[in-house]
C-alpha cells in the first residue's frame, strides 16, 4: 500500500476504523486522510464498504473500533447533526431530497445551520428575525443558482428529473455550510450531459476551496476529477494514490476484473 | 381573498354571541373552542413533526387539574410533609396549568422520543393512562372519582380596575376565542420559521434532516413543549368553564376526539384543526336530536374510516386543491408544502 | 411466604390469558406491521359471544368457548377484509387511524347491542375453591389456565409445524421475498388477522365467566396487550408469552403490596421502563442498522 501521498494539511482522518455487523465484517481496518481542499475518491466494488465508511464518518453508525477526526475533533460518539455542525456534510445515495416539499424550501431547510433566529424573536416576529429570514431566502437563491436548478425553485423535490434531484441533494448539503463535503454516488443514474454538468459543479466547489470526499462508480469521472483515489475491497483498503497510480495497480485491476469491469 | 379569510372568520365568530339566542348552542361553541385549542396543539405534534401522539389528553387533564387545584387550594401530605396551598386567582391557575403541562411536555418528549412509530404511540397512551390512574387514586389531592367540584370561574381585571367574574357563556366564549387567536398566531409564526421548518424536515425525512444539522431531539421536544403547554391552557379554560372535573377528563376518547378533529380538518395545516374542530364540536348538537350517544360515536368512527379512504389529507387540503384546480393556480395544489418562494414576506 | 405463593398461583392463572392476548397482538404486528387497536374489542366480543352462546342460547359451556373463538376469528377476518386489504402498504399511521375508527365503532356497537349493564356467565364447575395447603384456587380459574395453555401450545404448533405457519414465518421475515416464492400474501394477512383476533376472543371467552362482561372491558385489554407486546418486543411470539406472565406477576405484586388502585398502572409503568432501558423489548436481539 502506498504511503499517504498528500502534501496538504490533513483535515479528515480515518484511523483504524473497523465495523462489524454481528459476524459480518463490513470494514476491517481502514486508514486514510483527506487534505484541506483536496478531492479524494473512495472507490471499490459493490459491498466493499464505501457507504458504511460514510455512515461511520458522519455519525450514522458507530464503528466497532478506531476513530475518525475532523479538524482535530474526534467524531466518535457524535450524533449526525453534531458532525454536520462541525462543517462536515454528506449527501445520500437514495434519500437525497425532501420529496413533498418545494425545491426552494428544501434549500431553506438545508440552511438550518445558518439561521440566526431566536425562539422568542420568532414568536414576537421581531425585525431581527424577519431580516434573518429574508437573508436566508437570498442565500437559498444563491445556492440554487450555483447548482443550476434555480428555474425549478417551485417544483416539488420529488417531481424533479432524477439528475436534478441529485443536484438538489448537493444543494441541500451545500446549504448546511460545509467546509468538507461527502458525496455518495452523486452521478449514479445520470446521463452523460448531466454528469458533465455535475463535474463542472464539482470544479466550481473546488474553486471555492471545499474539501470533497467522493464515493462513485463512474470511473472516467473519478479519474478525471480526483486528486487522489482510495480503493476499498472487502472492507479493506487495497490502494491509495493518484489516478494514474491507481490505474496501473495490479491489485486494483484484479479486484475489478474479479467482479467484472462495470464502468472502467 | 385567501389572505383575508382569517380576519373574516374572526369577525364572524366575534359576532356570534351578539345574535345567537340558543344558550345551549353557545355552550357547545365554547366547549368546541376549547377542544379546538387542544386539537391545534396536537396538530403541532401530529401534523408538523409527524409524531402520532395518542396521549395528548394527559396534557389537557394536567392543565385542568393544576388550574383547578391552584384556584381551589389543597392540603396533602407527601412523605410525612404536610403541604397546604391557599386558593389563588383562577387566571394564575390557568397560567400555572399551562406551565406545568409544558414542563410535562418537555419531560415526556425527552423520554418518549427515544422511540418512534408504533412504540411512540404506545408510550404516549401509557403516559396518559398513568396520569389518569394517579388522578383516580390520589384521592387526597384530586378527590378521586368523586370529582373536584366548585371550581371558580375565571376573573379578569387588576386591583386598580376591579375584578369581573366570568360567569356567563358569552364571556367565556370570548376568552376562548382570544385564546384560539393567540394560539393560531404562535403556531403560525412557529411553523413558518426555521423552527417549524426543522420540525417539518423531521416529519418528511429524519435521516436527511439530521444530515443538514437538525437535532432530532431538540425540535421534537420543542414541539412537545408547545403542544403540551397549549393543551394545558385548554384544560385550564375547560376546568374554570365547566367548574367541575373528574378523572374522566383523561378518557382516551378525548384524545380520539382531538385526533379526529386534526385528521378530518387536515393535519399539518393551520386551519385544519379549526375546521375539523367546528365539524366535530357541532356534530353532537345536530346529531343528538336524531341518534343516541352510542350511534353518534359509531358515526364518528365510520367517518374517521371514511376520511382515510376518501380524503386522506383532510378537508382543508382538499378544498385548497379544489380551488387551486378551478383557478388554475398550480401553487395551491400542494397541501404539504409551506409556502412558495415567491410568497410575500410578512 | 404463603401469601407470595398465592400471588404466584394467581400470576400463573392471569398470565395464561394475558399471554393469549399478547400473542394475538404481536402476531398481527409482526406479520402485518399493524398496531391493532381493535384487539381489545375482539376480547370484549369474545366475552359477549360467550354470554350469547352459553346464557342466551343455553349451550354447553365448553362448546360456547369454541363457538366464541370461531366468532372472533370470523369478525377478525371481516375487519381485515373490509378495512385493511385495500390499504396494503399504507403507512403505519394510516392503518392505526383506521383501527382506532374500527375500535370506536365496535365498542359502541357492543354497548348498543348489549346495553351498559354488566353481564355474567355462570360457571358449570364447583364454586367452592380447591384448597391445597396454604393456597386456594377456584376450579373455574384452573380450567381457564388449562385451556389458555392448550391454546398457546396450539398456536405454536400452527406456526411451527404447519404449511400455513411456514408461510406466515416467511412473510414475517420478508414479505417481498415470500411473495416471490409463491406465498399468497393477501391470504396470509387475512389469516394472521383472523388468528390473532381468535386468540383475543379466546382470552375474552375465558375471562368473561371469571369477571363480568361490560362494553368498555376492551379498553384495558388493548392497553395491557400493548404492554405485553412491548415487553416481549413487537412481533416476538415467545416474548409475548413470557411478557403475559411478567405483566400478570407485576400486577399481582403491585396490587398485593402497593395499592390495588394501581394494579392497572403496572402495565404502563412496565411499558415506560422497558422503553427507557431496552426499547426493542426484553427478548429482542440487536438488529443490524444501516
UniProtKB/TrEMBL annotation, chain A:
Question: Which Gene Ontology terms cover its molecular function?
Answer: ATP binding; ATP hydrolysis activity
Gene Ontology, cellular component aspect: plasma membrane
In its keyword annotation, does this UniProt entry include Hydrolase? no
Task: Offer one Pfam family short name for this entry.
Answer: ABC_tran
The source's domain of life comes to: Bacteria
What is the species listed in this Swiss-Prot or TrEMBL entry? Borborobacter arsenicus
Q: What is this protein called?
A: ABC transporter ATP-binding protein
Q: Please verify whether the record's keywords include Nucleotide-binding.
A: yes
Which keywords does this Swiss-Prot/TrEMBL entry list? Answer: ATP-binding, Nucleotide-binding, Transport
Coiled coil regions in record: none
Q: Where does the ABC transporter domain start and stop, copy by copy? A: 12-259
Q: Which InterPro entries match?
A: AAA+_ATPase, ABC_AA/LPS_Transport, ABC_transporter-like_ATP-bd, BCA_ABC_TP_C, P-loop_NTPase
TrEMBL record, chain B:
Q: Does the keyword Disulfide bond apply?
A: no
Name the keywords, alphabetized. Cell membrane, Membrane, Transmembrane, Transmembrane helix
Protein name, as recorded: Branched-chain amino acid ABC transporter permease
UniProt cross-references to InterPro entries, sorted A to Z: ABC_transp_permease (IPR001851), LivM-like (IPR043428)
Record-annotated membrane-spanning stretches: 30-50, 57-81, 87-108, 120-139, 170-187, 208-229, 241-263, 270-291, 297-316
What's a single GO CC term here? plasma membrane
An MF annotation (GO) of this entry: branched-chain amino acid transmembrane transporter activity
Keyword tRNA-binding attached: no
Topology in membrane: Multi-pass membrane protein
Location in or out of the cell: Cell membrane
Q: Which domain of life is it from?
A: Bacteria
TrEMBL record, chain C:
CDD domains to which the protein is assigned, alphabetical = TM_PBP1_LivH_like (cd06582)
UniProt key word DNA damage? no
Its domain of life reads Bacteria
Any Gene Ontology CC annotation? plasma membrane
Keyword check for Disulfide bond, yes or no. no
Name the residues that span the membrane: 12-35, 42-59, 65-84, 96-117, 137-159, 195-214, 226-250, 265-284
One GO biological process this protein is involved in is:
amino acid transport
One annotated GO molecular function = transmembrane transporter activity
Q: Which UniProt keywords apply?
A: Amino-acid transport, Cell membrane, Membrane, Transmembrane, Transmembrane helix, Transport
Per its UniProt record, what InterPro entries does this chain match?
A: ABC_transp_permease, BCAA_transport_permease
Query: Subcellular localization, per the record?
Result: Cell membrane
What topology in the membrane does the UniProt record assign? Multi-pass membrane protein
Q: Please report which protein family the annotation says this sequence is part of.
A: Belongs to the binding-protein-dependent transport system permease family. LivHM subfamily.
| Name used for this protein in its record | Branched-chain amino acid ABC transporter permease
Amino acid at each position: 500500500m502506498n504511503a499517504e501521498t498528500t502534501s496538504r494539511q490533513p483535515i479528515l482522518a480515518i484511523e483504524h476504523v473497523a465495523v462489524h455487523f454481528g459476524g459480518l465484517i463490513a470494514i476491517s481496518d481502514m486508514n486514510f486522510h483527506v487534505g484541506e481542499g483536496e478531492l479524494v475518491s473512495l472507490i471499490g466494488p459493490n459491498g466493499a464498504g464505501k457507504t458504511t465508511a460514510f455512515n461511520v464518518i458522519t455519525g450514522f453508525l458507530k464503528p466497532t473500533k478506531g476513530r475518525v477526526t475532523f479538524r482535530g475533533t474526534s467524531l466518535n460518539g457524535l450524533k449526525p447533526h453534531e458532525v454536520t455542525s462541525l462543517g462536515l456534510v454528506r449527501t445520500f445515495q437514495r434519500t437525497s431530497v425532501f420529496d413533498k416539499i418545494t425545491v426552494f424550501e428544501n434549500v431553506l431547510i438545508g440552511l438550518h445551520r445558518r439561521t440566526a433566529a431566536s425562539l422568542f424573536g420568532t414568536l414576537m416576529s421581531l425585525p431581527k428575525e424577519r431580516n434573518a429570514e429574508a437573508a436566508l431566502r437570498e442565500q437559498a437563491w444563491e445556492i440554487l443558482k450555483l447548482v443550476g436548478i434555480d428555474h425549478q425553485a417551485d417544483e416539488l423535490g420529488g417531481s424533479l428529473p432524477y439528475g436534478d434531484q441529485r443536484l438538489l441533494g448537493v444543494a441541500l448539503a451545500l446549504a448546511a455550510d460545509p467546509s468538507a463535503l461527502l458525496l455518495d454516488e452523486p452521478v449514479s443514474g445520470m446521463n452523460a450531459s448531466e454528469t458533465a454538468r455535475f463535474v463542472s459543479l464539482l470544479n466550481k466547489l473546488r474553486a471555492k476551496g471545499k474539501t470533497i470526499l467522493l464515493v462513485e462508480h463512474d470511473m472516467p469521472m473519478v479519474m478525471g476529477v480526483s486528486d487522489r483515489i482510495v480503493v476499498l475491497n472487502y472492507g479493506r483498503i487495497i490502494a491509495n494514490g493518484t489516478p494514474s497510480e491507481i490505474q496501473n495497480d495490479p491489485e486494483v485491476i484484479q479486484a475489478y476484473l474479479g467482479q467484472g469491469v462495470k464502468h472502467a | 381573498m385567501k389572505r383575508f379569510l382569517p380576519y373574516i372568520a374572526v369577525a364572524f365568530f366575534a359576532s356570534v354571541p351578539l345574535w345567537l339566542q340558543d344558550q345551549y348552542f353557545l355552550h357547545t361553541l365554547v366547549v368546541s373552542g376549547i377542544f379546538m385549542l387542544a386539537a391545534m396543539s396536537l396538530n403541532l405534534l401530529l401534523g408538523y413533526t409527524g409524531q402520532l401522539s395518542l396521549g395528548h389528553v394527559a396534557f389537557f387533564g394536567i392543565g385542568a387539574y393544576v388550574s383547578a387545584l391552584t384556584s381551589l387550594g389543597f392540603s396533602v401530605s407527601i412523605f410525612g410533609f404536610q403541604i397546604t396551598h391557599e386558593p389563588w386567582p383562577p387566571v394564575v391557575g390557568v397560567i400555572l396549568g399551562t406551565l406545568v403541562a409544558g414542563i410535562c411536555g418537555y419531560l415526556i418528549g425527552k423520554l418518549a422520543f427515544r422511540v418512534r412509530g408504533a412504540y411512540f404511540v404506545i408510550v404516549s397512551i401509557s403516559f396518559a393512562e398513568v396520569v389518569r390512574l394517579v388522578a383516580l387514586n390520589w384521592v387526597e389531592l384530586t378527590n378521586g372519582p368523586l370529582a373536584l367540584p366548585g371550581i371558580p370561574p375565571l376573573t379578569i381585571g387588576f386591583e386598580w380596575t376591579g375584578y369581573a367574574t366570568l360567569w356567563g357563556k358569552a364571556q367565556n366564549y370570548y376568552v376562548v376565542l382570544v385564546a384560539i387567536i393567540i394560539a393560531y398566531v404562535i403556531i403560525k409564526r412557529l411553523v413558518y420559521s426555521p423552527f417549524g421548518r426543522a420540525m417539518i424536515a423531521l416529519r418528511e425525512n429524519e435521516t436527511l434532516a439530521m444530515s443538514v444539522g437538525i437535532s432530532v431531539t431538540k425540535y421534537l421536544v420543542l414541539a412537545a413543549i408547545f403542544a403540551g403547554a397549549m393543551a394545558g391552557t385548554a384544560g385550564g379554560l375547560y376546568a374554570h368553564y365547566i367548574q367541575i372535573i373528574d378523572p374522566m377528563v383523561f378518557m382516551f376518547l378525548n384524545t380520539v376526539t382531538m385526533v379526529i378533529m386534526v385528521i378530518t380538518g387536515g393535519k399539518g395545516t393551520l386551519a385544519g384543526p379549526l375546521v375539523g374542530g367546528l365539524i366535530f364540536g357541532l356534530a353532537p348538537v345536530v346529531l343528538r336530536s336524531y341518534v343516541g350517544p352510542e350511534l353518534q360515536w359509531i358515526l364518528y368512527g365510520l367517518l374517521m374510516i371514511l376520511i382515510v379512504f376518501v380524503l386522506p389529507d383532510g378537508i382543508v387540503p382538499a378544498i385548497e386543491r379544489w380551488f387551486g384546480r378551478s383557478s388554475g393556480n398550480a401553487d395551491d395544489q400542494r397541501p404539504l408544502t409551506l409556502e412558495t418562494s415567491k410568497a410575500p414576506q410578512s | 411466604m404463603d401469601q407470595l405463593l398465592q400471588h404466584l398461583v394467581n400470576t400463573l392463572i392471569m398470565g395464561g390469558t394475558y399471554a393469549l392476548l399478547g400473542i394475538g397482538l404481536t402476531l398481527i404486528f409482526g406479520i402485518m406491521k399493524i398496531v391493532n387497536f381493535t384487539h381489545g374489542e375482539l376480547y370484549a366480543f369474545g366475552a359477549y359471544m360467550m354470554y350469547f352462546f352459553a346464557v342466551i342460547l343455553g349451550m354447553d359451556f365448553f362448546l360456547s368457548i369454541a363457538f366464541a373463538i370461531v366468532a372472533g376469528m370470523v369478525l377478525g377476518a371481516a375487519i381485515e377484509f373490509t378495512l385493511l386489504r385495500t390499504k396494503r402498504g399504507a403507512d403505519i399511521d394510516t392503518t392505526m387511524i383506521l383501527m382506532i375508527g374500527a375500535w370506536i365503532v365496535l365498542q359502541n356497537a357492543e354497548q348498543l347491542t348489549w346495553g351498559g349493564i354488566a353481564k355474567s356467565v355462570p360457571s358449570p364447575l364447583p364454586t367452592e375453591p380447591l384448597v391445597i395447603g396454604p393456597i386456594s384456587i377456584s376450579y373455574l380459574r384452573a380450567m381457564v389456565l388449562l385451556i389458555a395453555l392448550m391454546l398457546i401450545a396450539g398456536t405454536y404448533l400452527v406456526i411451527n409445524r404447519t404449511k400455513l405457519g411456514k408461510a406466515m414465518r416467511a412473510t414475517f421475515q420478508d414479505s417481498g421475498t415470500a411473495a416471490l416464492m409463491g406465498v399468497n400474501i393477501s391470504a396470509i394477512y387475512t389469516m394472521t388477522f383472523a388468528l390473532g383476533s381468535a386468540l383475543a376472543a379466546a382470552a375474552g371467552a375465558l375471562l368473561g365467566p371469571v369477571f363480568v362482561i361490560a362494553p368498555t372491558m376492551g379498553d384495558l385489554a388493548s392497553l395491557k396487550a400493548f404492554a405485553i407486546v412491548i415487553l416481549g418486543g413487537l412481533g416476538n411470539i415467545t416474548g409475548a408469552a413470557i411478557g403475559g406472565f411478567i405483566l400478570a406477576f407485576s400486577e399481582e405484586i403491585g396490587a398485593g403490596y402497593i395499592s390495588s388502585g394501581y394494579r392497572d398502572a403496572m402495565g404502563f409503568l412496565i411499558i415506560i421502563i422497558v422503553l427507557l432501558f431496552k426499547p426493542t423489548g426484553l427478548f429482542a436481539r440487536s438488529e443490524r442498522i444501516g
